């Protein structure tokens, strides 16, 4: 069954609005809230910890935190600690990071694909409780093992955009996060590339595909989508909009393209409680089909 989540947008809401927002999401019946770590706004892991401690059932996705900013052992410690404290509720995601931002902090790597290829297998090994030794271009570990690995290893997601990264993410991650503003057909091509990468890796199983989808609710939803996506072509094909029933129809099209988890993104500033209530209604409609 397709999962439905919502995004807390750090561009339209301040950190002080975050905890009231996630509490409102849980009250409304939303199952997942996703956050991201864009430089230089808010910390993904600090926000996730606060949200998990402030709610009881809500899953929190980090989609994504930039790999170049963190040693892989530190990332493993962060994920393992949160997973042990709040079992089954963290959905951690990593990515290249915006290259310009990584350059600003002198963390930009020459080959982001090599970094992902080295980083994610090492991270997954550490979370599995393995002793990991590796000597790579960017990731080097000498007999590192977590003292407190999680009892159940969470899925590790990777953000991916281009064909090479999509295939690599399918090969080395447990799931993939697709960015917003894509049409259903574009998402379907991305899903195919992710699955191809998994098949080529020989790992077996299917990667979990998360897609951010721009959403607007209400009578003026169409006009807000046109405004929010005015810089790109075919804006109405790159968003879902209208009342919850119409949004659910749009979500179903993304699900049919192979998306396992459709996460709704408000681009304009909207009341978080109202957006959560509408998102929860979309999830109920999808579940009833």
From TrEMBL:
Coiled coil: none
Domain Luciferase-like span(s) in chain numbering: 14-224
CDD domains: Tetrahydromethanopterin_reductase (cd01097)
Keyword Glycoprotein appears in the UniProt entry: no
Keywords: Oxidoreductase
Record keyword Oxidoreductase present: yes
InterPro entries listed in its UniProt record: F420-G6PD/mer (IPR050564), Luciferase-like_dom (IPR011251), Luciferase-like_sf (IPR036661)
Pfam families: Bac_luciferase (PF00296)
Gene3D superfamilies linked to this entry: Luciferase-like domain
Protein name in UniProt: LLM class flavin-dependent oxidoreductase
Organism expressing this protein natively: Microbacterium koreense
